[in-house]
Design brief:
alpha/beta, six-stranded mixed β-sheet, 16 helices, globular
Length: 468
């Protein structure tokens, strides 16, 4: 049974959080919901919520005074006047049905987040890739520069240990394009990192996906965008839009030049000023340029922003070092689209070049539709690794599709000159990967599913094999 919202979210009129009455979050433990719920509670609003399974996140929410439930039941709505749901909530959810029967206000999570932005300078950061990192960079810069930002992003900041903050200054949101909900945010500034066809299970066609970005940028007062990206150029088209563009060559208004990767650090020049990062990947120079320019757009001195971003240490699941054993680094990354996989593997290869190591990719495909739509592109991207271990597809919200399995990617890797080993038994993956690794290698666990849990297991397996 499908979501009540259909494939794409339509914006609704927002009201301030204090006018919503008690608020109940269905699936409150999710990454996209828990931070919003916590901020509502911090505002003094009565908050409750439920989730299918217990988790440490629920325990943290309960400790903050939120009434949480494991499992879904109609009576758990209590005195709620507003119910918040995500796109993943199915139409037959008993709490949702009860809310509809009672005539309660039912909001998508993006509306609940958008309400937090009312009355504050807002920055919505979107794009097919790089949203989380760019949002994290901007939140970090604003914090370091004393702007007291609010933010809700898709992963914890290494500097703060959290993915959300109320603050009193500019409000930064990671604006999800996958379901069209990026149009919901009342942001003065829109940032577009890049545009490449994805989420076609919702958008259906690349042309419709592109048009979604056109509408998003039309609704913003100011747009900051990466003009090096062909998808961004397609969104801009021949419109006479007064965008703040950056890129390596004119007609970009702000030039980003002289990129250099030095091990797992990168640097370049932005407006002929030094842009230096302690995180890997040349692609992160574009993310950083967008973040610095967004900070400047809300009133931060450009030189101060450039200095602040030097201390950015990343977000969780973005080239996160899990551990090192006998010269083998184990790194976890959220890359789940071919372009992201390619960029992450490229950053890893540059990082091991001076030590003669190899890149070992342990990849878990995410979604049957994405695997079907981009099988050839995944094979080409994974071929950049020296060793490829594949897991079965993580279904997330989808049901299986006939003929769509990880065997498609095994064949695609072979077509691009790289043998791939499929390990369908999850309990055997960590030991298999550890047995392949040797000193100097970087092992990457890649994907948007539960592959992230394998990093510590691989470290443990390497330790068990260590002669020391």
């Amino acid at each position: 049974m499908s979501s009540i919202f259909g494939a794409l979210i339509e914006p609704v009129d927002l009201v301030p959080p204090h006018e919503l009455g008690p608020v109940h979050f269905i699936a409150i433990g999710g990454a996209g919901m828990s931070g919003i719920a916590a901020l509502y509670a911090e505002l003094g609003i009565t908050v409750s919520g439920s989730d299918q399974f217990d988790s440490p996140v629920l325990a943290d929410l309960a400790a903050s005074g939120i009434r949480v439930h494991v499992g879904h039941a109609a009576e758990q709505l209590g005195a709620a006047q507003t119910v918040v749901v995500s796109s993943a909530i199915r139409a037959d959810n008993p709490e949702l049905l009860a809310a509809q029967a009672r005539g309660l206000r039912i909001w998508h999570r993006s509306a609940a987040l958008g309400a937090l932005m009312l009355g504050r300078p807002g920055v919505a950061i979107t794009g097919t890739h790089g949203k989380t990192t760019t949002s994290g960079m901007l939140a970090h810069v604003l914090t370091e520069c004393g702007a007291d930002p609010g933010y809700v992003i898709g992963a914890k900041l290494a500097s703060s240990g959290t993915s959300f903050r109320l603050g009193s200054g500019p409000f930064v949101v990671e604006a999800d394009e996958s379901d069209g909900s990026f149009r919901q945010y009342p942001a003065e500034i829109a940032v577009v990192t890049n545009v490449e066809a994805d989420h076609l299970d919702n958008w259906r066609t690349p042309a419709a996906y592109l048009e979604g970005f056109r509408v998003f940028t039309d609704e913003a007062k100011r747009v900051i965008a990466n003009l090096d990206d062909p998808g961004v150029r397609a969104v801009l088209g021949d419109r006479d839009a007064d965008w703040i563009t950056f890129g390596s060559t004119p007609p970009a208004r702000v030039l980003l030049t002289d990129p250099v990767q030095d091990g797992f650090a990168v640097r370049a020049r932005l407006r002929d000023m030094p842009l230096e990062l302690a995180v890997p990947g040349r692609f992160n120079l574009s993310n950083a340029a967008a973040a610095v320019l967004a900070a400047h757009a809300v009133g931060i001195d450009l030189d101060a922003a450039l200095k602040a971003i030097r201390s950015f240490r990343g977000t969780s699941r973005r080239f996160t070092v899990v551990g090192s054993v006998d010269g083998v680094d184990v790194v976890d990354d959220y890359a789940h689209h071919p372009t992201e996989v390619r960029a992450t593997l490229g950053a890893a290869r540059a990082g091991v070049a001076d030590r003669g190591g190899r890149v070992i990719a342990c990849f878990q495909p995410h979604l049957f539709t994405r695997t079907r739509d981009f099988a050839d592109e995944f094979g080409a991207a994974l071929a950049l690794a020296d060793v490829v271990v594949l897991m079965d597809i993580y279904p997330a919200r989808e049901d299986p599709l006939p003929g769509v399995t990880s065997d498609l990617l095994v064949a695609s890797c072979a077509a691009h000159g790289r043998a791939a080993q499929l390990v369908s038994e999850r309990g055997e993956v960590a030991e298999t990967v550890a047995a392949l690794a040797r000193p100097g290698d970087v092992v990457l666990t890649l994907g948007a599913g539960d592959v992230t849990a394998l990093g510590p297991d691989i470290v443990a397996a390497l330790q068990a094999r260590s002669p020391r």
